[in-house]
Each structure stands twice: as C-alpha cells, then as structure tokens.
From TrEMBL, chains A, B, C, D:
CDD domains: Chorismate_synthase. This is Chorismate synthase. It catalyses: 5-O-(1-carboxyvinyl)-3-phosphoshikimate = chorismate + phosphate. It comes from Sphaerosporella brunnea. Homotetramer. Pfam families: Chorismate_synt. GO terms for cellular component: cytosol. Pathway: Metabolic intermediate biosynthesis; chorismate biosynthesis; chorismate from D-erythrose 4-phosphate and phosphoenolpyruvate: step 7/7.
C-alpha cells in the first residue's frame, strides 16, 4: 500500500492533478534540527525541467512542513509535508483516452480499482515520488548528522552505453571511484548525471537521438551508500538487500536490481568471489574485507563496507512514435502521444534512488538500535573472538561475577 | 524480521541444530482440503542429497501439521508446521571457529546480535527456508484449486553458461517455452534442473568441475507464474514486482532480481519495448498484450500475462579451497572448510524460488479480493472503455450495453 | 504510533499550533461517492464552541480533501485530508510553563521525546482527533451505503449522575432504547447530548456547577452500532471487542471501556447471562439471540446483534482551581490555569467515539471480506446445522460430486 | 489475527485437540539467559486442575523450546515454543453438537469461517492462551533482569463480592497494598487468589455455591505493574493504556477494562483527580506524583508510577443448568452441558492477565529504546526544567557550540 517502513514509517499520498502530493513521516527522532531548507534540495534535483533532455514542465515543487516541528526542531511526532500541485484540474478527455497506453498503468489501474484518475497516471505517475523524496530528506539529515552516512547515485548506463567501471564488479578502481563520489560531482555532469566526461557526453547524445525520434530509451542508476553502521538488516525476510530491492523496485519504471557483484558475480568462482577478512584499517576491534563483491551486506546484514547496487529503468512508455494498439473497447487503432515527454528517466531517477535507499537504511537503523539497546541492558555473554571453545560455552570457565549473578557464563568483555 | 506477508502471513523459526524448524501460517482460507501430503513434495525437492552434485546430507525432512486443520480441511485458524532436526546437537568447536568464514554471515550475525549459533550459520542457513517452502504449499494448493495458477522455476544459467532463450527477452520462442514448462519437465533434467538436454549437461559438467576443485560457482534461476489474476499488487510501495524482488532477495545467497526484460530491457527503445494491446484471445471483455517485455506487471499490478523473472545466486561461500583470511581476533590465518559442500546452489534453489513467488501472489490475491469485495458492494461508477468523457463521468450518458451487463460502464445511481 | 488499522488504514498528524492537522486514509474502497460534504458534519459536531458548556474557541475546522478522489468518487488511492490551524503561532511562554501540568501529558511527553510542543499539549491535545473524525467520515459513508450500519453515541453519565437505563444491562427497555436512537435525537439534547430530557438537564446543571467552581468533572459515553455484519473480528488477538477497546482507550482522557453487560455483567450468573439463541426474526437461515448481554460479540466475532459499549472519560485536567504542585526543576509552587476550559469533555467526545468505532468496524469488514472472498472460491465443506456427525465429517457420506473433484468431503450445500 | 506486538512480536497457534499449541516469539533480545525452567512456572499456574474450584483436567502442559536458544542463551532469532496436546483426537459428536452453545463462539466461528473445530471451542478455547503465557515468560525474564519490573495480578471480585480496597481508587492503603503485593502472597490464597483471608474465603464459598448449582459466576482481576520505565507508550493510537486494553480484551471471556481510577474516577472532580507532582523520592532529576488516580499513565505514556488496572471476566458460558435455546437448524431444544466445568475463571485468569501485561510493556520498551537511542545520537535540545523561557527557545541564549554547529539552541545538558 502507501506506507513504507516499520519504525521510521512513511505514508505518501497524491495524484498528478489533485490538490497536493505529500507524506506523513512517523517515527522521526525527536530533537533533529529540521526546516524546509533540509528537504527542498533533493526535491529540486528530482523535478523535471532541469535541462533540454528532461520534460520542460517546471513544477516548482516547494515543500511545506505542516507538523511535527517547532522552533526548527522535530518533536518526535509525525512530520506532514506537502507540495501543492500547480495544475489541479482533472484532465480534459480526448481521443487518447480511448486507449490504454501500452506499458502504462492505465489498463491495470482500471482493472484493479474499477476506476482510474483521469490522466497523468494517477498514483503511477512519477509525481508520486515527491512524498518519498521529502521523507528521505529527514532520514538523510539524521543519518548524516549521527553517522556521516551518505547516499550518492549516478547514471551508470543509457541504452547500451555503460560506464565501463560499473561492469567490473569489485575492480579496485571501481571501489575507489565509489568511495570518492559526491553529489556535487555527479551534478557537475548534467544533464545525464554520469560522472565521467566522455560517457556523460555519449549518453547525452544517445538520449538526444531518441528524443529527436520521439522514441525513448532506458538505462541504469548505480548508488553507493557510505558509512553504514555494521549490523543493519533483519533476517530472515527483511534482509537489508531484500528491503533495498523492495524499495528500488517500488520506484516507477524499474525492471531490475542487483547488489554488489550482482548478475555478473554469478560467474565468478567462490574462491575469488568470497570477501576475505582483513584487520579493520581504523577500528582495531573490528574487521574489514579485502574485496567487496558482497556489496557491503553478508547474510542480509550490513558489514560496514560500502553498500552499492544497480537499478534498471525501462525506456519510458510515453512516446510520440505512433503505436498500433487496441482501445479499451477492443477496437484496433493507432496511438500517438502529444507534447514533449521524457526520452530517458535515469537522470531524474538519481535523487529518487538515493531517497529510497535512505528510507531503508534509516528504518533498519531504528530497528537495530532497538535491539542494541535491549541487549546492552543484559550482561555480556561469552563470545568467540579467539575464545569460543566448547569448554567456555559449556561454562567450565565461569567468571566469579557470573557465578554470583547466577547467570551462567558471563564475561566482562569479549 | 521473521514474518512475511500481511493478509496471508508466514512466520518462520529455526536454526540448523535446534529441535525443529517450521512456521506458523496465519490468514489461511478456511475450508481448503489440506494434509501433509500437500506440503511434502516441495520440501523433498528442496532437500539436499538428491544427486551427486548437491550435498550428501539426507535430512529426510518430514513435515508435521500441528494445528489449523481437522478432518483434512483448514479451519481458517493458524496452521503450524514443523520439521524435526535430525541433528539437534550444537556444534563441536574446532580451529575453524576462530574464523569468521569469508562471505558468510558469521561476522555480521555476531556483530548484530552479540552472539551467534554455534554452527551451520543459524538463521542464515538454507535450512531456514524449510518453513517458507512448507507455508507455500498451502498457498500453492489454494491458488491451483481456485485459479489454476502455477509456479515453475528452472536453472537458467550456471557460471557463464546461459540457456540462450533466457537471454532473449520476449522472443516468441522464449515466451512459448515459458508457457509450456512444467515441474515434471524441469525435474526430468536432474541434477541441474535446466530444462534443455544440451545445456543441462554442460551446466552439470561445469558444476562437477568446480566440485572437483573444491571451489564453487553461481548461477541464475528463472521462474514463470501462469494464470495470475489481473489486478494483483498494491501501489505505491507494494507493487507486485517490488514484493517479488523483496521475496527473492530474502532467499540466502541471492544477488539480483529482474522482472520481464530486466536489465537487457533497458537497452530496448520504448517503441519496441512497449507491450501493445490486443484483444484478449479468450476473454472478449478484456485485453491482452502482443508482447510481454513487462513480464506480466504494469504499474506494479498484474495484467494477466505470464509473470516471469530471474534471480541471481552467488557462488556458495563454503569452499574447500584454502583461503587466506583473518581470525575474529585480528590475526591472519588460512581457512580450509572440511567435508563436502554444495558447489552450486541453483538446482536446490528452484523450489525455494517457487515458494517465495507463491507467498507473494497469495498475499496479493487476498488483498485484492478484499478490495474487490468492498468495491462490488458499491454501485458501479461510469468508466472509460471508449466512453470516458467528462459528461459521462458526470453520469449524464448511460449506455445500453452497460444497462444490459449491469457491469462495465454503468451509471445509474449510487 | 500514528497509524490505526491494517486494511483500512488511517495515519494522522498535527499538533495544536502547527500549520494543519489531518490524515491520510489508505485502503479506501474505490468508487465511493465522496466529497467534503460527507466529512464536515462530524467535524462540526466535534469542534468546541457549540454551547456555553464547552470551550468558547471557534476553530471553524473546514476540511479539505487533497487527494484520492476525482469527479466526486474515490479512486482507491490514499485520501489525504486536512484542516488548517487558525492559530499557527507557537505559544508565548509564561510562568505556567515552569510547571508540568498535573495529569497532563507535559511531563511524560518531555520524558519520552526529550522535547515537547510549546503548548496545547501537542499531540495529546484533543485537536489531534480531527484526523480521526475526518477519516471515519469515509468509513461511515461506506458502511451506511453498503450495510446500513449506523454509529450512535450519547452521554450516559456526568459525574455521579447516570442515565438509569444504561445501568441495567440488557433490560428490554434499554435494548429498545439503543435500537431506536439517532444522532438527530442525541443532538436535540444539547448541550450535554444525553437523550433524556430530565437527565440532560441534571447533567447540564452539574457541568455548570463545576464550570463555575473552575473545576471539572468526568463522565461516560455509550455507543451503539447497528446493522453490523456477522463475522467481524479477528481472533485471537484482534477480537472485535479488543480492537474497540484499543480504539476507545486511544482517545485522550479515557479511563475505561466495557462491552455489553460490562463490569456489572460479572455479577450475573451464567444461567441468566448466557444469550440463548432464537430463530432470526428476518433471516430464516440464521439465528439471533434472545438477550444481548454479550453486546453483539461472541468469541471476539460480531454475531449480528447490536454492539454497544461504554467509555469512561476522566475529569479534564486543565482547571482554574489553584493546584499545589512541583515545577520541572523540583521546586514547589502553585499552578492556576488561566482562561476558560472545558469543564467536562463527554458532550464533545460523542462524535469521536462514533468515529473510532467506525474505523474499527470498517477495518474488520475489509479483513473479513477478504476471507469470505477466499473461502467462496473453494468448494463448500460439509458443516453442522443438524448434519454434523462424526460419520459425515469422516467422509463416509461423500457426495458424488466431491468424489469426482477428488476434494474429499464436499457437499453441494450445507 | 494471531500476532501481537510490533518489535517484540508473538504469534500463537493451536486448538484444543490438534497436535500442540504454542508460539513463535520474534524480536527477542539476544544474550538473555533462557531455559524451559523460566517458562514453565506461569504455565503451571495457568493450567486447570489446581484445586476443587477449577476444572479437574490435568493437562500437564510441559513447554518445549524448539529454537532461538543455544547453551542457555537466546540468539536473537525467533524462539518457538510448544506444549503438546495430550488429547489430540477430534471430538466425538453427540446431541450437543446440534446446538450452538449460548454465549460461546460456536455460532460466530461457523459464520465467520464457514467451518469450525469439532469441539473445545477451537481457537476460542482458553487453551489458546498457553502460547501467550509462554511468550510472556521471555518478556518477564528480560524486564525483571534489566528493570526489576514485576507483574502481579489477583482476584479483586467474584460476583458481587469485591475486595473493598479495590473500589477505593487511590486510597493510600490501596496504593500501599499494590506496592507490596507478590505472586507468592497471591498464591498463598488459593484457590481464589484474592490476597485477603476474609474475602478469599467468601469468594471461594460463592464459587462453590455456583459450582454446586451447575451454574457459573464472573469476577474481576486487578493487576499492578511495578518499576515501569518512564516514557513507554506510543501516541496517538498506541497509547499505553490502549495497548493494555487491547491486550486484556483479547483474553477469552473479558468484558471490561479500566485503568487507574477507571469508571469510578469519572465521578471525582479534576481538582482532586489531578495527580499533583512532587519531587521524586529517589531520583533528584525527576518527579513523582502525590496521588496516582492516573494509574501510572499520562497522555498515553508511562510516568514511572505503578500501573494498575482491572479486567472484567464474565460468568463462564459452559454450565450444567439446562438452557432453552435453538439448534443450528432453527429448531428449539434444551441444552445441558455434561461433565464438570469451571464455575468461575478469574483464579486461572491471573497469570494470563500478567502475561498479556508483560507482552505490552516489553513491546513498548523496545519501541521507546529505539527512540531513545535515535535521540541520544543527536545533540541535546534546550528544554524546560526551569529553563524554558521564550528567550531560550528563540535562541537568544545560544551556546557557542551550537553556533558552531549551526544547529540553533543546543545545550550540553538540560
């Protein structure tokens, strides 16, 4: 339905031509400094009309915070946010409305609900993502302030043109590239947002070609999440990669998701693909991995390495090219979309991918913090780290303190 | 956590060496004929020891139904099912336990929970999937009886060897192949479960090579779901492909998911990739699509076409090859797994992929049936089908046809 | 948190002095005729300033529908509604702010969140209930159109003055009274909303006395739900009375809940308290009960009789009487609230109790409709109704049709 | 449905005559010492056959832990527990089965599910509560170890005989009585569990009278929760009293719930009923209240005082007295229950009430710990406690550190 997350929980609403679109965010940590200035930047990155390659409609999309903050701080109560729709009139019907648009949601929405919004795709419109991006602004701010976590996405392919690095899972150069990428750098490669001058140019040309043909083309967005705390993700069903996949595949027009080495990784033998452990470069009490085929998640749980994943977006369904198809009433006909349409969605998808990633990480953090708080109130249990032998676990090495408490094998430390 | 689904809701439990593994299934339709014979077959397909290519351990895995049925019918109350673990002793510790196994969940489980099961990976073990497969037995039985829905998965690649058809999104031959595949056919290609004599053989040889090298290799499983009712999937966040992605990426060892044309589809222009509508071959009141790049889902909602998707599984992390890695205590060392291990998981993953797909479809069906029931208690609202004009929506233009059918385009009255 | 319900799901937001208060309602049946005119009446009944007995602030409280409808019909997508706050300025601080107000939420909110809204109680303010009442407008409209279900609450006591009938569980006169009550009748007894001239007058005088003393007094609200479909409620944890209790006790200032005969019923022997069955007066295929001590729910499931329950509301905590208490900083002091305050909340609580009841019934209906749809797709199972013998259930009386289908004991009809 | 709680989440299963009854508990804190010895005592207190006043059936009810622990500690993974049913045969049908038993769940279960368990009430049987009590054993152990929280319930009335103290809301004697009560003391007053020699005796006699008449009688159970951390409860919908009400009203045979002063409290003026603050007797940084009419919860959030509440249980529906009622088929008849039945459930309800209270508090604690962890990672926001003035909140007393961080008014400490 229209709610995502359990502890940090976002509920969105809004169609293309109703009064507004927006969200309610519940479970916001209290005491977070928050104003509309924290939310607006990603909404502005998301909106159309940023270049000749995206749709010209300029929606402005100014966010309003309606609740949950006072004097610039969150209260811990639900934060409601909204963006007014500029064009609030339902659509005027025309010849085009006799057709369910191919690969659009017209047919399935009508079948599912028995009624559908007059135009713009209603809830299947990309405009629905405004609520997600606004909500993620809160998550991002919190994660940045408390863990310096960052979410950086970029265009990794348009049609058959791929940024080569992104096809070399875990090459040291690729890992280095991901470690140093910033949004500023990505946005310096407008309009495509592929952070490589040569490929940004090639991809831009390809999109322009499809635009000129009134056709469209797909692509992929890759995202890296840095400074993720160890331990996020809730086995078995809510493994971190499962939640990320869910989140990404809920974005309109997505067709695929892969984490770390992904589909290419299936062809790499275990002896190479296994990420061997090394001492952690900065934390002597932890471990890191020498490679990162896993993409920062093992057993469904973050391991502290960079999380990176790729999302496939299909070629936009709205095209000016004439399409031989069938009307709702079963009669054949030819459909030709009017106006200008996005020939490729990936440049604008970049902040949406970042937003959904932030929602996933924030919710997972809240859940894990609850567990850590619960566990930290208990005496420590004897654990491996070189100590884990049958004898120890059997209790033959009881500590005096443990004996006193009557709580079995308890150690002051691991 | 350990619950999946909202209306048809599965909660699983169990580690490798506790008393049992199993599940509670809530929201089971009452009056469904159900015995252990309905559940056992997929559990048997799932268990190891079916061939020289999979692990030799024969767990038997006989399911017991503990509640929720009487005289062979479900009561609508929770169905608890369990499979006893044959080996219920915790693990004897050894040198190997000083190491977090590379690309295993040892390190992350310990970090997350501050404690971990002595062996076998605990909840990260494939043995955890028994509860899922048992629960799916109920979903499959219901869906087969009521909608003739079928779930058929097969191995589409092992390492670099791909069944070529599966790399031709929406070629007519591939669509035909998916429409006719059966589990019986898939199982006639043991041990690999690639339903093509030539490729089954090639893949089997490749797996054997890796087994002999004490190494491992990954692969992909493709699944087709046939006879899915139109209208399943809950926008915006619970789009049907998002739930499928979530479900698949929650299976141990998965690295990627793609629906329909998937990643390859991003390279196909919209003018081709759009699935144009045609009159429905058997239902004159509905439409079908000429192609199926979408993989049976548009706007997050099933459109009645076959749903097909592909899941990537990594090379198993447990290998006999010596690995230079680091102990929990930060000291370097060389880890060499003993015993025989699965060199490739995809053959055994086939019934698990089918199971998770069945859980997703069943839950989505329950949600949509609720909506349809709610909506069908209301008078019909005027709808498009070639008639959708503002005037019509206002109710001023009744059609004769609508009058006759008492459905479809019906105005009249509230 | 701020979400209530699973299939029909309401999320509310808003404090007293933020921009607006409101809600998002997800799971709305598509095709329901709905405009703001359907929502406003209960909001108007709820707002303060309706008489000399309630607080003079006139909030106006005009609702806006922001999404989820088009041309006067619901789309099945989330319906967002809001009411602007007229006074959007945070509170000016004064001497009073040095005190946590006794029996208010000041202390607990601050302890819980580490921060609290400047005034008005934030989310603990009765203003928060606007979102609930707005959401319930949708539920009520749907239930009225499809099942003629009605929700009618009234004031049953103020302080020690009780409407005598409501203390006679299941007297025929009381049952008759509940069967015939309407909102119009209740509202003809303003300001107290006790639908009995004598007691309305007495209660009104008592409230006026407490108002004049700058003190406050509590009371109870009783609610009857008529035309509830049989079968609502989800054992074990979501029994219908459990959800009603949850809903009512989530209303600010509530202290108790009882269903049917309630606490008095504990003193009535089983031989009298048991509701014996009688043939249903209008439906020959069903049964009714001769008495209704159960309050329309047995085993957590509605039985088709009227549901009635009583809710206790405490004396309002904000009073003008001087109170010797303690400041946040631990120093003693005397607190005296300024301005005029509600001396008794029950008159205004009437529409809020109705609203929460409607949300519970609507959600329960959606869940049960899902089950009924699921079960109705299966062949009927042989059931009691005079036929339920061991032989029949064992299958020795298989029907031919059942044999053919291979589905065990199945009868054409019950 | 059959799941309760969100972070600490219990799912139960089982009917009277299936293989077993039990539960899966998800969200268990890892590292908790836990064996079956922790679970059994409350199960033994709950089971029938403890005295001449309760039903003679001795079910034994030995619990087995099936998962989630190793070497006596919880792993953080789901804990499955079960109790085998000794009598696993479905019921032999008889004349009695032609009748829906008055005030039982026979009629409503059949209407809801279209099928029902052969006997014993299926899921509506008190045997279903075994899973709840087992799950609560984990919650209680955790809360006792970490917060010394205790849950103590007792019988406060049988029929019209009330323990007088429990009708004097917040008399100092009653508060003292609640503060000192222990389970040991309660159990020293078997069979009734009313911890007062005189009233225990009177109540026992009354129950015996009803038993001898083959009739039944109701009563109330009161429960006190001590050492509850401040801050538990999730406004708006999941206020702590709302969750407690939900939990209690989900226990079979309950008819009412009241918190603190409850229904009697509605008759007490605000000037008395308000719980004035006093300096906390042991914690100089906090406050306590001089009285406790609120029952330990204000604004839906625990305030650190004792939580106490009362639950009404109806007279058991199964009685030997002949009842003139109607068969499923609409024919009149006389029903006479055979065998011996519980003439009053409240003595056995005591551990069930304690169990549900523990599940509520545990889940609320997990949620609040998550919030506290989230908030504690942020810089502190300036807060009242004697400091809260308009100037401070406006930022005119900014700290240097806050200035640097650009985060407004932030103090090192409150």
């Amino acid at each position: 339905m229209s709610t995502f997350g359990s502890s940090f929980r976002v509920t969105t609403y809004g169609e293309s031509h109703c009064r507004s679109v927006g969200c309610i965010v519940d479970g916001v940590p209290p005491g977070l400094p928050l104003t509309e200035e924290d939310i607006q930047p990603q909404l502005s990155r998301r909106r159309p009309g940023q270049s000749a390659l995206t749709t010209p409609r300029n929606e402005k999309d100014r966010v309003q915070i309606h609740s949950g903050t006072e004097f610039g701080y969150t209260l811990g109560t639900p934060v409601a946010m909204m963006v007014l729709n500029e064009d609030q009139r339902p659509h005027d019907y025309s010849e085009m409305d006799l057709y369910p648009r191919p690969s659009h949601a017209d047919f399935t929405y009508l079948q599912k609900y028995g009624i559908k919004a007059s135009s713009g795709g209603g809830r299947s419109s990309a405009r629905e993502t405004i609520g997600r991006v606004a909500a993620a602004g809160i998550a991002e701010k919190y994660l940045r302030m408390t863990h310096n976590t960052s979410f950086t996405a970029f265009v990794s392919s348009v049609g058959p043109i791929h940024l080569p690095l992104t096809q070399q899972p875990d090459s040291p150069e690729y890992m280095e590239f991901l470690s140093n990428l910033t949004r500023e750098k990505v946005d310096s490669f407008l309009p495509v947002r592929c952070p490589d001058a040569e490929y940004n140019e090639k991809m831009g040309q390809l999109i322009a070609e499809y635009r000129d043909k009134k056709d469209s083309i797909g692509g992929t967005v890759t995202c890296v999440i840095r400074n993720v705390p160890v331990g996020l993700g809730e086995p078995c069903f809510d493994k971190l990669e499962a939640k990320l996949a869910h989140a990404m595949m809920s974005i309109p027009a997505t067709k695929g998701f892969e984490i770390g080495s992904g589909f290419l990784g299936t062809e790499i033998p275990g002896s190479i693909h296994n990420d061997k452990f090394i001492p952690h470069p900065t934390d002597p009490t932890s471990l890191a991995t020498a490679t990162n085929y896993s993409g920062g998640i093992q057993g469904g749980i973050s391991n502290g390495q960079n999380i990176y994943f790729k999302v496939a977006f299909k070629s936009p369904a709205t095209i000016g090219v004439a399409q031989d198809t069938t009307k709702y009433n079963g009669q054949p006909g030819t459909l030709e979309a009017k106006g200008r349409h996005d020939p490729c969605v990936v440049p604008r998808a970049v902040p949406i991918v970042e937003a959904m990633a932030a929602l996933v990480i924030m919710d997972a953090l809240c859940l894990q913090q609850s567990r850590e708080a619960a566990r930290s109130a208990l005496p420590r249990v004897a654990q491996p780290m070189g100590l884990k032998t049958k004898e120890v676990m059997d209790g033959s090495e009881r500590t005096e303190e443990a004996e006193k408490k009557g709580q079995g094998v308890v150690f002051g430390d691991e």
